[in-house]
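User: We ran a pulldown and think these components assemble together. Before we commit to crystallization trials, I'd like a predicted model of the whole complex to look at. Sequences follow.
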Amino acid sequence: MKITLFIPCFIDELAPSVGISMVRIFEKLGHTVRFDESVVCCGQPAFNTGCWKEARDVAVRVVDRLKNAEVIVIPSGSCGAMIRAFYQELFEGHPKQAAALMLAQKTFEFSEFLVDCLGVTDLGSRFPAKVTFHDGCHGLRELRVKQQPRELLKHVRELTLVEMEDQTTCCGFGGAFAVKFPMISTAMGEVKCGSALQTDADFLVSNDSSCLLHLQGLLSRKKEKLKTIHLAEILASF
Amino acid sequence: MSSSFENEFRASATKLTADLRHRALIRTSLKGYEKNRDEKRAGFQSWELARQAAAEAKWEAVNHLDKYLLEFVDNLNKRGSKVFWASTAEDARNYILNLAREKKARTIVKSKTMTSEEIHLNAALAGAGYEVVESDLGEYIVQLRGEAPYHLVFPAMHLTRKEISYLFHEKLGTPETNNPEELTMIARRQMRMKYCQADLGISGANFAVAETGMISITENEGNARLTTSLPKIHVALLGIEKVLPKLSDLALFLPMLAIAGTGQQLTCYNSLMGGPRQPDEVDGPEEFHVVLLDNRRTQILADAEQRDALHCIRCGACLNVCPIFRNVGGQTYGTTYQGPIGSVITPHLRGLEDWKHLSSASSLCGACSEICPVKIELHHHLLHNRRNAAKLDVGRLDRIASGAFAFLVNHPKIFAMAARLARFLQPVHRTVSGSKIDPLLAWTRSREVPVIAKKSFRQYWKSRQK
Amino acid sequence: MSQREEIIGRIKEALRFKAHRPGHVQASSYGARTGATPREWLPLVPGDHEGQVEAFARNCRELRTRFFRVGGLSDVKDNLLELKNAEDWKLIASHHAPMPDAILPSIGLPVVFTDNRPTTQEIERADVGITLCDALVAQTGSILLTARSAGGRALSVLPPHHVVIARESQLLPDLPAAFELLQKTYGNDYPSLITFITGPSRTGDIERILVLGAHGPRSLTVFLLPDEK
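Assistant: Here's a predicted model for the assembly, 933 residues in total across the polymer chains.
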């Protein structure tokens, strides 16, 4: 299969190892990996601020550039949700609406793609550590990704998964919300970090790096030993 | 440009989010509710199908609102009830004030109704010299404290028993006690006398059944039953959107309201009232008045995109599940209706310009839409409000930022250059990080900044191609 | 133009624009079928009478409603005598109906009958209110009664203890059945008050801790008797 990776801006610059892990995983499975350097962002930041015209300027480009892709995989539930769940609204009444819907149908979040599309749950990975999993809201509620990451982690050798309390409560990142209402964002993040720390895990894992950047920022400030890591990075440990 | 309401919101949010005692209290008090709610939901053969059916029943009612309202009123009139149509809050207040004056009322007893908060009825009645007693325990408590209700279903959930005990001691002269049962008995004894004395009872309504011309009131304490049974005059105040088409719809709505609202299969009392006492009845009010309130609900109705916000059954489930609500508390919103539903409808009821910030103060996690028993697209409406607000003010910071952002990401080479430049400047930023001159202070006040990678993914990819 | 006409006018104007159907955005793979009733989604109830009695009893235990399934009126009388001593009753309130009329004289206490239109204060002084009902609902442990069938509005809510006497055939499986019964029994002539009582009165307003006996009765007792031969 020719798999086109959609690497969102923040992963490109702040967590490239997530993208690199995905490349290694798909190549191990024998697929050809594609990447279109001209696609940087799904348009969600502008969309969430209510600037839908600007969001469409970005989204139209995404729709055009990726229209010939066989399948698109994103290592982020929130970007995946933007394309799969919110493009429908953004493009309502727009000439590219049909094209946007077609793109949505072949766009997947990373863990759901592995498990639901490729039928793969065991990559031969090994990661000796105790981990706890944070469900990014958009992936959880818009894409219904919940079991897939857990299926994958189950097959990682020497890894123990401990579920935290309030695992489905938002971490407080929310994009621009994190800096527009930092006091609320921080409080929400503190609650989530508290739940994660209670599990005594070594690593806090998620399928959404945006959540992890926010949580890691809080954990580092408090000089906590708990480290954040993306699911792809664990799975690429083979 | 932020309104004064936004500034107040931010100030209150800053205070409450740092209040760890408040955070813990709310968390503990909601844990029991969550467990019960999930248990009772699981008892349904299909909660999801029930949600869809409830959503469809409300869609039917709201999208044919004129038809069902007229049917409701027609049936009410047939049995001797009086109906008053109130376009505005002032109309509703004046009707009730005139009624109180006409009937020479002295003591007025009220059961819980958010609609009366909305129209500021208590202040108007008190201002006209009437003694108004809130009979619901939570409302009674916040009334004594002179503050706004914290939550639309649990008005006093932010208070500890110690604070309530002190309040009763101070205002009623009762001995202090740490026992919730004793505190409840104090309120019960106070109320007994008032119920028996009251000339006028004011209630709200959870539903208005068009088919049979009845209002339906859901409660646990029994105060609404007493408020609507003992005084000679009963006035029910409700929003026009409360209409349900059929009596049998209640078989679905009563349990769903209870489960989502309080985690109970059914609340203690679910009462239907369709008229004043009938000739063959031994007691009951001599007059039954129904005040139907518009107060800009027709404006929400006219916004077809957000019309389903009128499906709301005021269960409070979206508040309970919202992490923003839990951290800033109900009083921070500064509105009659708090939480996600409050953030959605307040711009329509009080103006978008002044209240758009509530729609921005959300991470859009979607937990509200997921729990809503009538499937209101709450978090989508927050986005709609943001979009409508952005259209209001063209030269705004957000539009400029979004425009710049769109330009940047649509020009990947420029984006890549900007990112490399940012990486170069990071060590410089570190020297001012967290200080007053830090441009990223909104982030760095509480969080470390992520380090921009030495080699970006696109650089890695490029080098792979070679 | 009257307020009514103004408001209806605004509604009609607003409804000219069509709104999306529910489930439009959220995955609507769950489409509720037309003609389906709440019975299909509400909790399951056993189909047989004994199973329903058991369900009602279980709900009562959870709600702290005292439930007694007895053989006849004399059992009710015995139970009431015990309660009278345990709770130190001095005054009973009730309404005239074959069952209360048959047993109340042997309790040995003065009775205020709401048929005589007593004052609120008189009912308030009673230690217990004894009523019949329209139905019991197994699914939820509820008692359905009206101002017409249960001696008015205040009788079942003012006294601190509410006692209900019901017949086996009055036990209905679920809420939809209860509403069907209401429509069948009363047709176009409903009592002005209909109420579902589900447990003794309670509040969670103080730290969300459950306290029984807020404003309504603190105790609720239900006697279930076999049908009359």
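Chain A touches chain B through 65 residues (CB under 8 Å). That may be worth checking against your pulldown data before setting up trials.

User: Thanks, that helps.
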